[in-house]
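Action item from last meeting closed. Structure (167 res):
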């Protein structure tokens, strides 16, 4: 594997791990603030990010590279509102998308078409996750501070759960 690409893939492992930890922290916040539906949503998202991370780990190792398991910094847990939670969700997904786009760009520059092909799964996944994050944030903006709106949002959010493509 081209060394520069291996470095980028290892960095991506860190970003997926970071997203997984962030969503677990968001699930904890929701769970302890009475939003059980939102908690379930983020528990599942956290698991999915871990799957994304493991997929990269295996890919690097199978291609004669060396996957490095990173230390994960403490995620945010100081949310003041559901709105902040969903703003953080969208920001996190946008950040990950920008990193994936950079890997795609570098693969094309360095003519690594195998990794380029592998990364298409992540491109599709990000498209879907960003769309869901944006929809949920839009709904939060409509609801604002309305308590019964929050109640209904929490009840219905799992209908927005992102279905993972078969691996
Ligand atoms: Fe890893 O899928 Fe979004 O961040």
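Sequence:
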């Amino acid at each position: 594997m081209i060394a520069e690409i291996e470095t980028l893939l290892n960095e991506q492992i860190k970003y997926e791990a970071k997203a997984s930890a962030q969503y677990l922290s968001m699930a904890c916040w929701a769970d302890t603030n009475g939003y059980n539906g939102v908690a379930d949503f983020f528990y599942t998202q956290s698991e999915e990010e871990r799957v994304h991370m493991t997929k990269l780990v295996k890919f690097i190792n199978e291609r004669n590279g060396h996957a490095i398991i990173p230390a994960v910094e403490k995620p945010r847990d100081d949310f003041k509102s559901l709105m902040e939670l969903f703003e953080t969700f969208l920001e996190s997904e946008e950040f990950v998308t920008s990193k994936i786009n950079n890997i795609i760009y570098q693969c094309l520059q360095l003519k690594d078409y195998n990794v380029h092909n592998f990364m298409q799964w992540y491109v599709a996944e990000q498209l879907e996750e960003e769309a869901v994050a944006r929809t949920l944030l839009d709904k939060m903006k409509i609801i604002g501070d309305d308590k019964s709106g929050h109640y209904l949002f929490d009840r219905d959010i799992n209908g927005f759960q992102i279905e993972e493509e078969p691996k």
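Note appended to the action item: The chain is about 75% helix and 0% strand.
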